[in-house]
Amino acid sequence: MRARLHRPDPRGRFGEYGGRFAPETLMTALEELEVEFASAWADPLFVGEYHRLLELYVGRPTPLYPAHRLSERLGVEVWLKREDLAHTGAHKINNALGQGLLAHRMGKPRIIAETGAGQHGVATATAAAVLGLECQVYMGEVDIRRQAPNVSRMQILGADVIGVASGAGTLKDAVSEAMRDWARTVEETQYVIGSVVGPHPFPWMVRELQKVIGDEVLRQSEQLPDVAVACVGGGSNAIGMFWPLAGTGVELVGVEAGGEGIGTGRHGASIGAGSPGILHGARTYMLQDDDGQVLEAHSISAGLDYPGVGPEHSYFQEVGLARYVSVTDREALDGVRLLALTEGIIPALESAHAVAWVAREASSLRHKTVLINLSGRGDKDMEMLVERL
Ligand SMILES: *Cc1c(COP(=O)(O)O)cnc(C)c1O
Question: Model's pTM, two decimal places?
Answer without folding.
Answer: 0.97
